[in-house]
Amino acid sequence: MIEIKQVSKHFAGHRHAIDTLDFTIPDGKIVGFLGPNGAGKSTTIKMMTGILPIDEGSISINGFDIAKNTLEAKKIFGYVPDQPDMFLRLKGIEYLNFIGNIFEVPKDLLKKRIETLTQQFDIYNTLDDYIQTYSHGMRQKIIVTGVLLHDPNIWILDEPLTGLDPKSAFTLKEMMRNHAKAGNTVFFSSHGLEVVEQLCDIVAIINNGKLIFYGDMGEMREQFQSDQSLEQVFLELTTDE
């Protein structure tokens, strides 16, 4: 569970990037995080993961405050950033072993998970190549693989499907479903409204740093007295704002 309580963030010379954000991401659910470009999605996720400091309010990961109990919180979640261009001078296998060692995954288990996950994402045969030679999609796959190696309870994914081929995107979506069904938490941002509508149990919509909707599709239709698609409601909400 992720609890975001009255969180605000501002940058010098600008209005609030995030304005008193308050909602809970429960266990056993896939929560989709939507908003126009510049709405505050990545800023929120970077505060959730401890990359950016929180100016006001608090965020807890399974009861651990991300600001006060940073290491304990970071052991619980896996984070896929919006840009996969990291550790480019390492070979794929070097990167995965590095991540596995950080999270103290036993060697035999680490080897098994690397083999299983990289075969699922069709990058097993490229592990001896340098990441800088990978395409964008392959870099995305290696980052996702690294995130899953320590089998975290909570997945925090910023545009995780970007650049993935259809087969790998399907594989990741099935992993997300199974992870949530096992009682775990999946929180991901996306610009793909159809994917969110099909995949998510709960939708959170942010605009201008404020949460403007949080609930499931049934609640959305009830609130807006409409049978419109998520795309139509999203466009109306964000345009009005």
Shape descriptor: globular
Biggest sheet, spatial arrangement of strands: 6-7-8-3-9-10
- Count of runs of 4 or more consecutive helical residues: 9
Q: What is the CA-atom radius of gyration, in angstroms?
A: 18 Å
Give me the count of strands.
10
Strand content: 15-25%
Helix content: 25-40%
Low-confidence stretches: none
Mean pLDDT, all residues: 90
How would you spell out the order of helices and strands? EEEHEEHEHHHEHEHEEHH
Structural class: alpha/beta
The biggest sheet, with number of strands, parallel, antiparallel or mixed sense and barrel status, is: 6 strands, mixed
The end-to-end span amounts to 29 Å
Describe this structure in words.
By secondary structure, the chain is α/β, with parallel strands linked by helices. The chain has a domain at 81-152. It has 9 helices and 10 strands. It has helices at 41-48, 70-74, 92-102, 107-120, 136-148, 166-181, 193-199, 217-224, 230-240; strands spanning 2-10, 16-25, 30-34, 56-61, 64-65, 77-80, 154-158, 185-189, 202-207, 210-215. Strands 6-7-8-3-9-10 form a 6-stranded mixed β-sheet, sandwiched between helices. Strands 2-1-4-5 form a 4-stranded antiparallel β-sheet. A hairpin with a 2-residue loop joins strand 4 and strand 5. Helix 3 (92-102) packs across helix 4 and helix 3 runs parallel beside helix 5. The mean pLDDT is 90. InterPro entries: AAA+_ATPase (IPR003593), ABC_transporter-like_ATP-bd (IPR003439), ABC_Transporter_VariousFunc (IPR051782), P-loop_NTPase (IPR027417).
